[in-house]
Amino acid sequence: MKKVILLILLTMPTLFAADIAGDTSALTLGDLMTQTYEEVAGYITANSRYIQYDSTWVTNSINNACHDIARKYLAVPRDTTITISDSTELYELPSDFYALDRMSSIKAGVGLENGMTETNAKVVGQKRQSGNVAPLFYIISGHKVQLIPCNNDSDSVHVYYFARANTLDSTGDTSNISNDYKELIVLNAAQRLMRGKLSLLSEMDKSKLDDISARLKQEDDRIKERDKPTLEALPK
Asked: What count of other Cβ atoms lies within 10 Å of the Cβ of residue 89?
């Protein structure tokens, strides 16, 4: 990616809060970069030198923020379907798989989903059944899942899971994290950037960095409280 050196102007206004509140669009890297630059620019005073943040550094900060948020809040819910092949128990999970929500099996020709139970390798033999039975149990190991029993072609398993954040490279790339987490991403990225230039900040700017950190904590607490019912209901 071509590097662009952007000088943060001392006179740029802080537009961040209003922009975030009214934006319901998908999150693109370009949008997140603009919001992050504006957030940081609002906290550079005349007592500081011009501070340079090149596009690679900003992009890395945003990607790191996205990856942390996706893991911490299980912020990227996804689902996929595995179609059973007769007698085959082991299947690949999606490449972006991070954590499981739940699995359910679907009997061919019936269409209803039935909950499945996690088991372990020590009792697999006991869980296998013959006859016209859809999968009842699963074992996850790395990026593979073992389904038991697997007796019939065209039976299927619906996998509900949480994905990793996708990596954003170009300004038009869209994050797989929803707009609900936009402020958290931008504040997280802005904090990373300012901490990385800590030696160049004036005392006033350092106090503003403290303010960003306080706002980040406040937003973090709000999201944790908002998502608490979902996170607490998931299997440990």
From this structure: 18
At 109-122, the pLDDT tens digits run 787 888 999 988 77
* Cβ pair 68, 211 in contact under 8 A: no
What burial class does residue 203 get, using C-beta atoms within 10 Å of its C-beta: 0-12 exposed, 13-18 middle, 19+ buried? exposed
| Token duo for residue 135 | 């999968």
Question: Alpha helix (H) ranges present in 50-154?
Answer: 55-73, 124-127
The values of phi and psi at residue 220, to 5°, are -60, -45
Alpha-carbon distance 146 to 191, whole Å? 42
Give the confidence band of 233 by pLDDT, cuts at 50, 70, 90.
Answer: low
pTM of the entire structure? 0.78
Q: What 3-state class would DSSP assign to 117?
A: strand
